[in-house]
Amino acid sequence: MMNSKELVSRTIHFQKPERLPFTGSMGETDLSGDTMAIFPDFGQKWWLGGGGTDEWGSRWEVEPGSGDMGQVKNIVLENLADYRSITVPDGGDPKRYVHWEEQLKQAEQGDKYVVICNGPLIFERAHFVHGFENTLMDCLLEPELMAEFLRHVAEYHFKTIAYIKKHFRGRIHGYRGTDDWGTQLAPMLSPEVFRQLFKPVYREIFAAIHDAGMDAWMHSCGQILPLLEDFIEAGLDVVNVMQPNVFPIPALKKFRGRLCFEVCGDAQNTLLTGTPDELRKEVGLLLENCCDENGGLIEIKMDRMYFEGDGVSLEYGRICHEEYRKRDPFIKKT
Question: Which helix (H) or strand (E) holds 52?
């Protein structure tokens, strides 16, 4: 029987897992799923609803009672030409990882697939620091300077990956970052601008992740269908999507066998306002279009991010998980 680590890895690489794997929490470290998330010490867990200033200088404010991650309310870098003034956190500082040994021992006892969750990659980090409008404008007005800035902020990930490669190789299996790229209708920048400025940096990051013996995971919300081919070419292994209906779901079929999807249901509509039967039907549609018996889909077993942050009911979390188990395409039918 395959253990959790083997199930997740085989699913990502289309190597015939024995059953459909599901994640543990990606917001906290726990042992509830086939994956276990670990985090560097960021100094403050602002993403869990507390708000505050992160180590890049971005000030996060959270509406009372919202339960979400909040919004950045300041601009650290006004002038893009001053990007070298931004102090990149030292991803090679051993103090960031002193708690990992105990957590990894727990993961290894349960044969879990371990994923480091390391915050924004390059697009989100750029606009968190430089401002959203400033970033979009400078991609068009100052493309050469923007390319230098993106490479500057990416140094954090290169140093983190290098530290993992040296000290934890073989014990951490996935490297996860976030970059929300989509509006409801389209990516926030044209595919041409994406290919010119962002794709080369993603390619470098994903190559470093692979060289360190890990799979590349990324969360991205919104309509990112026009970018998925580029992400595949850049080396992305797993994409987390929370609003699959924007694509719509049948459009994902052309990526089946080439990209692994991490998904549960649509957190914008079906999980909030759909009927139980609509949710069950959506699970079937996701399985049909994202994977086959060889792999391609990891179920998000919902946690408090969905229940408290997005307002999904516990009942719908149960229905979703039961339906994925019922329709499991990887279990051999007799």
Answer: strand 52-53
